[in-house]
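TL;DR need structure tokens for one chain.
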Amino acid sequence: MKERCLETYSLVCHPDTPANTVTEIEVSVERTISGLWLRFHAELVLERVVLPSPAGATRADGLWTTTCFEAFLRPDGGSRYMELNFSPSSQWAAYDFTGYREGMAPAELQTAPTIGEDASDGHFALEADIVPLPARVGSKVQLALSAVIEETDGTKSYWALAHPPGKPDFHAEACFAATLAATPAA
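>> reply
TL;DR here they are.
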């Protein structure tokens, strides 16, 4: 039996956007033969977080304006990258960029990501399964993971693997702080 290649990363809150209710966000990532699986797990006070209402697994823009979880995938050594957004509503978005915030266009996925969640008073977790992962992503990928958490009092905190100086910017080079291994052999 082949071992799972599961990596877990801790996100850090941007120093200019402290959270009132979120204490930790971890992301588990697995590159599978057919795609990519992500699990964002936040320790928080659930009743104090804005969670968009269920809307079905549809593509939607502007998900990052409220609680949203994101992954950015850049083929190793390239300037092109893909942005994936996942909402607790089950809505999702995918964009291709030709370079840093340039050439943004909707990314075509063969199938919509499968999004699930679980929650309790003290945590919220969102899982996203992207199958298949587009071939243009490549075998070795630089990875940025991030989250926007909106609280019921209007506070928004911005979480990422790393942050560049200045305001939060999930597209910045500093955010691509992990490497996603090549697709495992069958």
